[in-house]
Design goal:
This protein has helices spanning about 10-20, 40-50, 55-60, 70-80, 85-95, 130-135, 155-160, 175-180, 185-190, 190-210, 215-225, 230-235, 285-300, and strands at about 140-145, 150-155, 245-250, 255-265, 275-280. By secondary structure, the chain is of the alpha+beta class. The protein has 2 domains: about 10-95, lambda repressor-like DNA-binding domains (434 Repressor (Amino-terminal Domain), Orthogonal Bundle), CATH 1.10.260.40; about 130-300, Beta-Lactamase (2-Layer Sandwich), CATH 3.30.450.180. The protein has a 5-stranded antiparallel sheet with strand order 2-1-5-4-3. Helix 4 (about 70-80) packs across helix 5 and helix 5 packs parallel to helix 10 (about 190-210). The chain starts with 10 loop residues before the first helix and ends with a helix.
Length: about 300
C-alpha cells in the first residue's frame, strides 16, 4: 500500500536516504569493491534485518503492510539510527489517521499568563503554572515552544536577547521563521548553520507525528517558498529532538553571549517544551545576562 504521509515523506524515502549514508564497513559487512550507488544495497539491509529481500523492497516501495515492532527495531539497529531517528521511523511506519488530527495539540489550562507574553489564537493553551515558571526565571532567558517552533511563552530576558516577541505579530513568533526569513537572523544566531539544521530536523519530526497539521503545512510551505537553505536542508531528511547544547547569540549592547540550554518536555498531550538558557558561574556570559536583565527590567520599571 502507498505511504499516506506526504508532509513528512514516505517510509520508503526515509529508508532509502538512511541506507545511502552507510557503507558496508559501517554495517560490519565485508567490502565488495566499487559500487555504482553509495551506501548499502537493499539486499544487504534485508540480510542485516533478517528479512527477505522481496519484503524489504516492498517496504521501500510502500507496498507492505504496517511492519511489526520487531521489524522496525531491527531496521533501526541495521541502519544505526539514534533515538530521534527511530522515533521518526515509527511515525512514518504508523501514520495517524486524518480524523485524529486536531486533538493532539489541546491541553486543559484556561487563560494565559501575564508578563511573560503569549501568542493568542493558538490551538494549544498553556497551563497557568507553565506561564508562572517562565515568569519566575527573571535572570535567565526561558521560552516555551511547541514542535512547530512556535514560541508560546517567554520572559523579558529572552525577549531582550533573542527577539522582541511582545511586538511581533503572533504568526511571526516562530523560531523557524526567524531563522530562515528574517534577514538579521545570522547576526543574532552566531551558529546559524547548526541552528538551521536542528530546526529543520525538529520540524521533520513534527511532520512525522502530525502529517495533516494545517498550521505545519502552511509553515513548511512558507519556508520552502522563501528560503533556498530551508529547501536544501529539508531534502536531507535529517531529524532532531531538541534536548541540550550550547548556543551563541549576539546582542548589540553586550556582544557575544554563549549560553548552555536544557529542554524539558511538559507533561500533557501537546508537545510543549520549556527551554532554559544558563551561563556558567563567573563567565563573561553571566555578566552579559546581568546587563540584559537590567535592560529587560527598564520597560517594566517605566510601566
Amino acid at each position: 500500500m502507498a505511504d499516506p504521509n506526504p508532509l513528512a515523506g514516505s517510509l520508503g524515502e526515509y529508508l532509502r536516504t538512511r541506507r545511502a549514508l552507510l557503507t558496508p564497513e559501517d554495517a560490519g559487512l565485508p567490502p565488495t569493491g566499487r559500487r555504482r550507488v553509495p551506501g548499502l544495497r537493499r539486499e544487504e539491509v534485508a540480510e542485516l534485518v533478517g528479512l527477505s529481500t522481496d519484503y524489504y523492497v516492498r517496504l521501500e516501495q510502500g507496498r507492505a503492510d504496517r511492519p511489526s515492532d520487531e521489524v522496525l527495531d531491527a531496521i533501526g539497529r541495521a541502519l544505526r539510527l539514534g533515538p530521534a531517528e527511530r522515533a521518526h521511523l515509527y511515525d512514518l511506519a504508523r501514520p495517524p489517521r486524518r480524523a485524529a488530527e486536531g486533538t493532539a495539540g489541546r491541553v486543559a489550562g484556561g487563560s494565559a499568563g501575564r508578563a511573560a507574553g503569549r501568542a493568542p489564537g493558538r490551538s494549544e493553551a498553556l497551563r497557568p503554572a507553565l506561564w508562572r515558571v517562565v515568569e519566575a526565571m527573571a535572570d535567565t532567558p526561558a521560552l516555551v515552544m511547541n514542535d512547530r517552533n512556535d514560541v508560546l511563552a517567554w520572559n523579558r530576558t529572552a525577549a531582550v536577547l533573542i527577539a522582541d516577541f511582545p511586538r511581533l505579530p503572533p504568526r511571526e513568533r516562530n523560531m523557524a521563521r526567524r531563522l530562515f526569513l528574517d534577514p538579521d537572523a545570522r547576526e543574532v544566531h552566531l551558529d546559524w548553520a547548526e541552528a538551521a539544521r536542528t530546526t529543520v530536523g525538529i520540524l521533520r519530526m513534527a511532520a512525522g507525528r502530525r502529517p495533516h497539521d494545517p498550521e505545519l503545512v502552511r509553515l513548511l510551505g512558507e519556508l520552502s517558498l522563501g528560503s533556498q537553505e530551508f529547501r536544501t536542508l529539508w531534502a536531507g531528511r535529517h531529524v532532531h529532538e531538541k534536548s541540550h547544547g550550547r548556543k551563541r547569540f549576539h546582542h548589540p549592547a553586550v556582544g557575544e553571549v554563549a549560553l548552555d540550554y536544557e529542554t524539558f518536555r511538559a507533561p500533557g498531550t501537546a508537545h510543549h517544551l520549556l527551554v532554559v538558557y544558563t551561563a556558567a558561574p563567573g563567565s563573561r556570559a553571566e555578566e552579559a545576562l546581568v546587563l540584559l536583565g537590567a535592560l529587560a527590567a527598564e520597560p517594566a520599571a517605566r510601566h
